[in-house]
């Protein structure tokens, strides 16, 4: 009989091993480890080395307020409760079509994953605007598919597609805006130099990620949302919405607050420097 150990839960159990023959499969979509062998059994003790000092306790499941009226959803989206916008970035819609055009056999589930997750978010939040913060497409191979996607999304709400560096390849077929703004926020893709503003810049482009380890050799990378503040700039960096985006581990520094995103949990990641100061 198998055992399920939830990685992103509020506490973690240690595994005691009687034989080293069990097959282990890590499912990133479900955030569980399924052990297909009775050789493993749960030892009733708190794990002593999980997440060490780098990770704070688990927040409210699946979503967390990261600023007044602003909710970070672990499904890689940002929602403003009063202004009613929903923001995502870096869909790279049709990435598999571009790979197939180059002769690489890729499965086609990525596009349906993007659309299904977007429709789920639109259904739950009912936003006035869906803001796609750049890189709607990966390249021109997905022009027609992206046009059809926008038609379906616009049947649900207003869609504002901002220009990203990949979108220049389809700029003649799809209309993009260079930016979108509200009294408190400026939305741009992020591939150009940021403008001087006192408002918070919300961007994509960087595909931020964060890593976790369990002290026993397991290492996983997850998409991350970053709040960055310097003497001259305040910006929030959205995780890539594309299921094909591996992500780039965000640097460990005092300028950034990093939130690790999974569909079931959002975790606040403390930098090593902050952790040492608290010791």
Give an account of the 3D structure.
The chain has 279 residues and is of the alpha+beta class. It folds into two domains: 3-46, no CATH class; 55-278, Purple Acid Phosphatase, chain A, domain 2 (4-Layer Sandwich). Helices cover 15% and strands 34% of the residues. The protein has four helices and 21 strands. The strands form four sheets. Strands 6, 13, 14, 15, 16, 17, 18, 19, 20 and 21 form a ten-stranded mixed beta sheet that branches. A six-stranded mixed beta sheet has the order 7-8-9-10-11-12, covered by helices on one side. The longest helix has 17 residues, at 109-125. Mean pLDDT is 80; it is low at 1-60.
Short description:
The chain has 279 residues and is of the alpha+beta class.
Count, helices: 4
Q: What ranges have pLDDT less than 50 throughout 5 or more consecutive residues?
A: 1-60
Largest sheet: 10 strands, mixed
The CATH architecture term of the largest domain is 4-Layer Sandwich
In round numbers, the mean pLDDT is 80
Number of domains: 2
End-to-end separation: 42 Å
What is the element string, with H for helices and E for strands?
Answer: EEEEEEEEEEHHEHEEEEEEEEEEH
Strand content: 25-35%
CATH class placement of the largest domain: Alpha Beta
Secondary structure tally: strands:
21
Structural class call reads alpha+beta
Which fold name fills CATH's third level, the topology of the largest domain? Purple Acid Phosphatase, chain A, domain 2
